[in-house]
């Protein structure tokens, strides 16, 4: 069983930055593909970014991004802290949504992006970008 708790959301102006964090419970965090998804009011939940599992504390992990956030958002993980991050820069009003952390024991960053192999979801954190 893995529990995910997001933090770091809030209100920010257009062009600003936020960093979301997702703290995971459990001792096998490094074995999970981790991801961020978001859901805006009246819309379906959509993929934002995923990062592959890693085999050591400092090894590089493959990342995968939605086209709408490429070059602006960066996903990273710290296995020593059981935490995955989403650094969001150059925020736009269309980035306003509830952001959810996800964990998948199997699959790849690309397959997890489709949402099919997610095992655990967090409760979400609100991000609001004001113009």
Question: Secondary-structure blueprint of this entry?
Answer:
Elements: E1 4-7, E2 10-13, E3 18-24, E4 33-39, E5 46-51, E6 63-65, E7 73-78, E8 83-88, E9 97-104, H1 109-113, E10 120-121, E11 125-130
Parallel strand pairs: 2-11
Antiparallel strand pairs: 1-3, 3-8, 4-5, 4-9, 5-6, 7-8, 9-10, 9-11
Structural description of this entry:
The termini are far apart. The chain is mainly β. Strands 2, 4, 5, 6, 9, 10 and 11 form a seven-stranded mixed beta sheet that branches. Strands 1-3-8-7 form a four-stranded antiparallel beta sheet, with no helix packed on it. The protein contains one helix and eleven strands. The mean pLDDT is 93. It is globular, with a radius of gyration of 14 Å. A hairpin with a 6-residue loop joins strand 4 and strand 5.
List the keywords.
single chain; 131 residues; mainly beta; 1 helix; globular
Low-confidence segments, ≥5 residues, pLDDT <50?
Answer: none
Class from secondary-structure proportions: mainly beta
Average pLDDT number: 93
Looking at the structure, what is the overall shape? globular
What pattern of helices and strands is seen along the backbone? EEEEEEEEEHEE
Can I get a quick summary?
This protein is mainly beta and 131 residues long. The chain is built from 1 helix and 11 strands; from the N terminus they run E-E-E-E-E-E-E-E-E-H-E-E.
């Amino acid at each position: 069983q893995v529990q995910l708790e997001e933090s770091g959301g809030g209100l920010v102006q257009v062009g600003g930055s936020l960093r979301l964090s997702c703290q995971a419970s459990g001792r096998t965090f490094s074995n999970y593909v981790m991801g961020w998804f978001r859901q805006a009011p009246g819309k379906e939940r959509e993929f934002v970014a995923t990062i592959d599992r890693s085999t050591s504390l400092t090894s590089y992990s493959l990342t995968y991004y939605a086209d709408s956030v490429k070059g602006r958002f960066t996903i990273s993980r710290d296995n020593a802290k059981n935490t995955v991050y989403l650094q969001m820069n150059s925020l736009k009003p269309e980035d306003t949504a509830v952001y959810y952390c996800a964990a998948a024991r199997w699959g790849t960053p690309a397959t997890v992006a489709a949402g099919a192999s997610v095992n655990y979801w967090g409760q979400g954190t609100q991000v609001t970008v004001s113009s």
